[in-house]
Amino acid sequence: MQVLHSIKQLSDLRGPVALAIGVFDGVHLGHQEVIRAACDHARGHDGTVVVMTFDPHPLHVLRPGSAPRMLCGPRHQERILQDLGVGTLLRCPFTTETARTEARAFVMRLAEAAKPLGCISVGHSWSFGKGREGNIHLLTDLGLEHGFAVYGVPPVRVDGEVVSSTAIREAVTRGDLTKAARFLGREYAVMGRVIEGRKLGRQLGFPTANIEVENEQLPPLGVYAVRARLDELWLPAVANLGKRPTVAENAEPNLEVHLLDWSGDCYGKEMEVRFGSHLRGEMRFDGLDALKSQISRDVEAARSLA
C-alpha cells in the first residue's frame, strides 16, 4: 500500500482522484460503504481512489483526556484497508492548526492538490473544519462550484441499529464479539508486534507469542479461541488475555498467543489476532502443574473450534 502524509502529495497521483474521507476507526460496514462509493467513482472514471484519514485521531487533539481506545491502530488500519483492495492511503496530520482551518479552505486545499479532484465520499452526517462548520451541504455546494462529485453515504443498519465505532467499542468492552463482528463484517481483531516475554509458556510445553498491541480496545480478560495471521498465513490458535495471576502480581493486561501445530521464530513480526469464541475467564491456579493442565484443556477446546 502507498501511504501519503500530506495533501500536496495528491498531485503525484493519476487523476481524477476519488477521495473517501473519514476517521475510519475500525473500518466497519458503514466505513466500507463510504470507501465503496469512492472506488466505484474511480473505476467509472479511470481514476485513483484514496482513503483519507487523520493522524492522530482528532479526539486525541481536541479532547486528549477523553479520547477512547481505537478499534484499530494505524498499522492495523492499513492492513484492513489493504485487505479491502485499497491501494493508497492519505494519513493527513491533524493538529490544532488543522482544527482551526475553515471548512471551505480545507476542501480547496484538496481540490487544488488533486489533478483533478473527481469526488469526495463521506458519511452523510460527517462534519469538519473550524467549529465543525463543514457538512454535506457545504461539500455539495463546493462540488458544484469546482466540478467534483459528492457522495453523502447514509448510515448502515444491522438488525435495526446504526453501525458505528462507538457501538462496536461498547460491544467489545462487554464481550459481545458476535455483535462486533456483525458490525465490522469480520471478527474483531487486534494487531501488534511479537516481543520477548518470560518464556514461561515454553517451559510449560506451550510456547506463546507475546503481542505488543497497538492502542486498541481489548475485550474482557480471559482465554479465547482465535485465528492469528503471521506472514500472511492464518493459523488456528488459543490466546490468553490477562494479568497472569498465577505467576505475576499486579501485572498489566498481556496478550499471549499459542499457535496450534506451528513452530518457528516470530519475534519482531507483526501478528493480527482475530477473536473467536471465549473459552473461559481468567483464573488463578495453585501452581504451575495445575496451570499446565488447564492450558492443555484450553488448547484442545480451541482445536475443536478450529
**CATH H-level superfamily title of the largest domain:** HUPs
Please estimate the helix content: 25-40%
Backbone CA Rg: 22 Å
User: Could you list the spans in which at least 5 consecutive residues all have pLDDT below 50?
Assistant: none
CATH architecture of the largest domain: 3-Layer(aba) Sandwich
Distance between the termini: 30 Å
Query: For the residues shown, what is the average pLDDT?
Result: 91
CATH topology of the largest domain: Rossmann fold
Major sheet strand order: 1-4-3-2-5-6
Q: What is the number of beta strands? A: 14
CATH class of the largest domain: Alpha Beta
The string of secondary-structure elements, in order, is: EEHEHHEHHEHEEEHHEHEEEEEH
- Overall form: elongated
Number of domains: 2
What portion of residues belong to β-strands? 25-35%
In DSSP terms (H or I, runs of 4 or more residues), the helix count works out at 10
Pairing-aware structural class of the strands and helices?
alpha/beta
Biggest beta sheet summary: 6 strands, parallel
Explain what you see:
Helix 5 (103-113) crosses helix 6 (136-146) and helix 7 (165-173) packs antiparallel against helix 8 (177-184). It contains 10 helices and 14 strands. The radius of gyration is 22 Å and the shape is elongated. It has helices at residues 29-44, 58-62, 74-83, 96-99, 103-113, 136-146, 165-173, 177-184, 200-203, 288-305, and strands at residues 2-4, 17-21, 48-55, 88-93, 117-123, 149-153, 157-158, 161-162, 189-195, 209-213, 222-230, 233-242, 254-259, 270-280. It folds into 2 domains: 2-162, HUPs (Rossmann fold, 3-Layer(aba) Sandwich), CATH 3.40.50.620; 188-305, Beta Barrel (Elongation Factor Tu (Ef-tu), domain 3), CATH 2.40.30.30. The protein has a 6-stranded parallel β-sheet with strand order 1-4-3-2-5-6, sandwiched between helices. The chain has a 6-stranded antiparallel β-barrel with strand order 9-10-13-12-11-14. It is an alpha/beta fold and 306 residues long. Helix content is 31%, strand content 28%.
